[in-house]
Amino acid sequence: MRALRALVLVILLATPVAASEWGQIKPGETLLAAIRARYGAPTKETSQKIEGYDAVQWVYEGARAPAGIMRMTVDFGLLTPAGYRKDVVRTFKLEPKPEIFNRKLIIDGWGSPTRAGKEGDLEFFLYQEGLLVYFEKDGEGAIALIFTPPQPPPPAQAPRPSPQR
After folding, report:
1. Strands 83-96 and 69-80, how do they pair?
2. Which of the four pLDDT bands, split at 50, 70 and 90, describes residue 21?
3. Confidence class of residue 151 from pLDDT cuts 50, 70 and 90?
4. Residue 106 contacts by C-beta under 8 Å, 6 or more apart in sequence?
5. Do 126 and 116 touch, CB atoms closer than 8 A?
6. What is the dihedral of CA 92, 28, 148, 83, to 10 degrees?
7. Residue 142: other Cβ atoms inside 10 A
8. How far apart are CA 4 and CA 24, in angstroms?
9. What is the pLDDT of residues 87-139, one digit of tens each?
10. Tell me, what's the pLDDT at 153?
11. Looking at the predicted structure, is the pLDDT value of residue 19 above 80?
């Protein structure tokens, strides 16, 4: 039964979506009230100051976390060209249960990453649209998905001149 639930969850989550959203949460757009309406009250709420602005972090764990997720952390407070919006999702992080998100599912759902690399022992995928995925040391299972507003592309490297002979 557990395997069947996991399979159903994977199929539901495998549909292609914009990289910067999941579970109807889109950083830079989704409001605190929409998160509360969809997911209810958080397990834990923390207020903090970031660069002089009031920010809030909500954590959903255990039974309050979305299906297939151990912990979901949502950070609110975003400085926009129109000013600071304390009720807008800045980032959110999903820490999935084992075997929920694997490398193939990530690529099927979000496409090829803008960049892939290693940070310490962990491989990662970076999507310009606003998704950073860290994989287990074996490189298959995702251990964290971090969603942000879209990121600017890395600067193009100028071609190096050929050595003169």
Report:
1. antiparallel
2. confident
3. confident
4. 125, 133, 142
5. yes
6. -110
7. 23
8. 24
9. 999 999 999 999 899 999 999 999 999 999 999 999 999 999 999 999 999 87
10. 66
11. no
Strand partners, 147: 92, 131
Tokens 């942000």 belong to residue: 148
Read off the tokens for 37.
């309406």
> pTM for this one?
0.79
Strand arrangement, sheet containing 83-96: 44-50, 53-61, 69-80, 83-96, 142-147, 131-135, 122-127, 115-119
Q: 59 is written with which tokens?
A: 């954590």
In the numeric block, which tokens belong to residue 127?
A: 């999507």
Who contacts 135 (Cβ-Cβ below 8 Å, separation ≥6)?
103, 122, 123, 124, 125, 141, 142, 143
